[in-house]
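Can anyone check this?
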Amino acid sequence: MKIKNIAQLILSISSGLLSQGSWAQTDADLLNDATTPKDVLVYGMGYQGQRFSPLKQINKSNVKKLVPLWSYSMNDSRGSESFPLVKDGVIYVTSHNATVAVNALTGKQIWKVAHDYPPETLRVVCCGIVNRGAALYEGKIIRALMDNHIIALDMKTGQEVWRTASPDPVKPENGYAMTGAPLVVGGVVVVGVAGAEYGHRGFIEAYDANSGKHLWRHYNVPAAGEPGVETWADKSYETGGGSSWITGTYDKDLDLVYWGVGNPSPWNPRSRAGDNLYTNSIVALRPKTGEMVWHYQVSPGDPFDYDAVQTPVIANLKIAGKTQKVVMQANRGGFLYVLDAASGKLLAANPFEKVNWADSVDLSTGKLNYTDAYKEALQGKKVDIWPSSSGGTNWQHLSFSPITQKLYINTLHIGMSYEAPPETEPYKAGKPSGPGTVKRKPLFDDPNVRGYLKAVDPMTGKASWATPFQSPNWSSTMVTASNLVFTGVMTGEFQALDADTGKLLWSFQTPSGILAQPVTWEKDGKQYVTIMSGIGGVYALFAGDPNLKNVPSGASLWTFGLFDK
């Protein structure tokens, strides 16, 4: 592009763009995202979902010099859970009702697109009016909206390129809502859906990244006559659940997308005897067709709302002296699963938090060894269960360091008293299928320690260190090659900890609570860290946590760098 005057030059630099070609994110760019830290192009900082950065400039000795460089107001009072994307000096971030591009070095807005909804769209959203991010592909930023539309915007201008409605019966009034970030693989946009708490039939589906054409849909609950329907008693598959509201990962060598599937509906297990496939499962799909290659069900017939939606993280682990490609999930039920990436074979399953509903998992069969507490719960008795329905961890993402070979997990240390009363009438789709169908109250070992950040061995579930927090951290973690772990606290602190010891090295108070996802990137030889602040979500709104009483709402985007003067 020929620069004609100073104003044009400034505009070009502020946008981070000196050539039209720099806008395009090719398939090769996305595949190499984890090893090209100048930009952040894929949800999870790479298709593997490891949230690991090879950057080392910010390290243990200088992290105390980290200072805020700018903040940007999202003008939104809802919870902020979005994953920032970074390309050529521009940060792209989302809220439920806006998509924004800002200059990465100054925080100045380049463009903002508002997304308006009719009132009925937000009326039945079960679990937080949020959005967790977008995807980049060939000059477009692609995202899902709360009214179940997928849209593509021009990265340079924000102008809409295409818009597609998810085909029927996916309507807000039926309980469907799209809150997760898409995953683009080879020009295919893969998305999931929230809303099993209204008894819908959950799915994972795909669109063409260039045209928006709907390509395929994989239902997570079988229909009559389909494989797996025999695991649902008395046609309970008709109100099956099986949401898919957290983004998956992709392995290019196996050409498989891995996605987590949520709980069956309703919560009360007395309405749906059986294993309830393919809820509470990790599924491996072909991105071009949606064909399911394998599945592993972590919690058959789940009575406790132990969603298995957590992002399956891909890594190479040394097992029995051999390097093996695996998929790992720290599951809401409190067990950490390690599966063979090609076959789904179970390699390890161990508790990473306090668990009393099962003793262990049989590695040869993949079946859980249930405790008396679990069996009594199914009989309708009032029992104490660990973890609570919020899980040993919830949706927040862990990170994995190939250097330390550890997972860095924000855990919840909360149990519950649980009772599943007899059904008074059959459940019907469209009604809330969670609270009210079972009785629950929180339990604490110590109400002043409701969560930990842990460094966990994938194969044993054991933590080499565990740093306690008064409230559980709902923020994701990020780990760097300088052995720093970044995370946010619901009382607003953005923090860096020593990945080897768990020692707190740096903390900065943001204006609201943090539920979001940190990223790090490099520009002109300098490393930066970006995070959103803005409290919200189910726990903050309904848990009655006294530590959060005076935390104000309000979403903002923050970028930090080293003070070098």
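Reply from J.R.: I decoded it. Residues 1-21 have pLDDT under 50 and may be disordered.
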